[in-house]
Specification:
- It is a single chain.
- By secondary structure, the protein is mostly helical.
- 63% of the residues lie in helices and 3% in strands.
- It has a two-stranded antiparallel sheet with strand order 1-2.
- It is flat, with a radius of gyration of 17 Å.
- The N terminus is likely disordered.
- Belongs to the nuclear hormone receptor family. NR5 subfamily.
- This is Steroidogenic factor 1.
Length: 206
């Protein structure tokens, strides 16, 4: 795939193993018993946030300011993005890079990354969940685990827990903009209508 083709879609989406998203609820260590319908509702609510957050965390560990590492392992120069991506996508990528810098400055590690994923997945904003008590329990446990971990492992950074949650809100905002961009590309015929991402996008909008 050429670099021009790669930057035609959000860089955190292209080449990512979309079916693997469906396994997130089954990997949770909280051993929560959920209805399949609830699993899908939770996933439909946050799939774009998970993809964006995966992209950001990958860049934090990649550690190169002037290029982006795709999930495929391919590197894309920021100059290529600026020249070929178009203004909307370029702005999305630049916003993502700003979040990368914020998370890097907070020294976010893999344990915190996992806890933040729990918080993304088990959102209390999801409507029509059959077992809302399970979602609330998972949210509370993830919050408590993250707070305890940051206080124990980063005692010098007493505000880290709050700062991580602030950045998580920015991830959500960026993911919503990425969804709008993807939907626009879909309406323009630039994204196959039978792709899993588009199916998830339609499911979230219904």
């Amino acid at each position: 795939m050429s670099q021009a083709a790669i930057v035609a879609l959000p860089l955190w989406v292209v080449g990512s193993p979309k079916p693997a998203l469906l396994s997130y609820p089954h990997k949770l260590s909280l051993e929560l018993e959920e209805e399949v319908g609830d699993q899908m509702k939770l996933l439909q609510n946050c799939w774009s946030e998970l993809l964006v957050f995966d992209h950001i965390f990958r860049q934090v560990h990649y550690g190169k300011e002037h290029s982006i590492l795709l999930v495929t392992g391919q590197e894309v120069d920021m100059s290529t993005v600026a020249m070929q991506a178009g203004s909307i996508l370029n702005n999305l990528v630049l916003r993502a890079q700003e979040l990368v810098l914020h998370f890097h400055s907070l020294q976010v590690d893999r344990q915190e990354f996992v806890c933040l994923k729990f918080l993304i997945l088990f959102s209390l904003d999801v409507k029509f969940v059959e077992n809302s008590s399970v979602v609330k329990e998972a949210q509370e446990k993830a919050n408590a685990a993250l707070m305890e971990y940051t206080l124990c492992n980063y005692p010098h950074a007493t505000d880290k827990f709050r700062q991580l949650l602030i950045q998580l809100a920015d991830v959500r905002s960026l993911s919503m903009q990425a969804e709008e961009y993807l939907y626009h590309k879909h309406l323009s015929g630039d994204v196959p209508c039978n792709s899993l991402l588009i199916q998830m996008l339609h499911a979230k909008r219904t």
